[in-house]
Amino acid sequence: MSPPRPGDARAERLLADHLAVFPGAHAPVPVEEIAEDLLGLRVHLRRGLRVSGMLVPDRRAVYLNADEAPVRRRFTLVHELGHWVVHCAGAAAPPRILCRSDETTGSADVREREANVFAATLLMPEAGLAAGVADGLSVADLAAAYGVSGVAMAWRLYNVGLGPQPSAG
Questions:
Q1: Any alpha helices (H) in 22-138, and if so which ranges?
Q2: Domain count of the chain?
Q3: Does the residue 25 lie in any domain?
Q4: pTM of this structure
Q5: What is the residue range of 50's domain?
């Protein structure tokens, strides 16, 4: 069976827009700069936050749990950017607050899945991954280069047809 190949064209366009303004290295993707410079969102780190991340659209603010690992915060930030781009920007009545917690990470909620696909697409661009795989880089090497967890990288490689299906455990 072939991998599902999820991706998000909006995330690809956002990265292309960033590279048009700020050309340079592709890894790691500068997610805070994209949030602030391209989308006009302010990013705040907060200790003791009860969720991994939270988007408050009317304040144009993203709050991240400072107690979590940097790779988790990076993914969470881009997940919240996905909510902004996919569910808020241009919406007549955007949601008041969107958040990412352990309870919603694997959720069946379509909005959460869309934000996760957006995040994976923006954080781990397929073209860069294909070049890395062709150069013989391991999952761990690619994860370190892109500032993501090994699990996230393994799933992204599988989803774009560049690696085997990761084990569920």
A1: 31-33, 70-83, 102-105, 110-123, 126-134
A2: 1
A3: yes
A4: 0.84
A5: 9-124
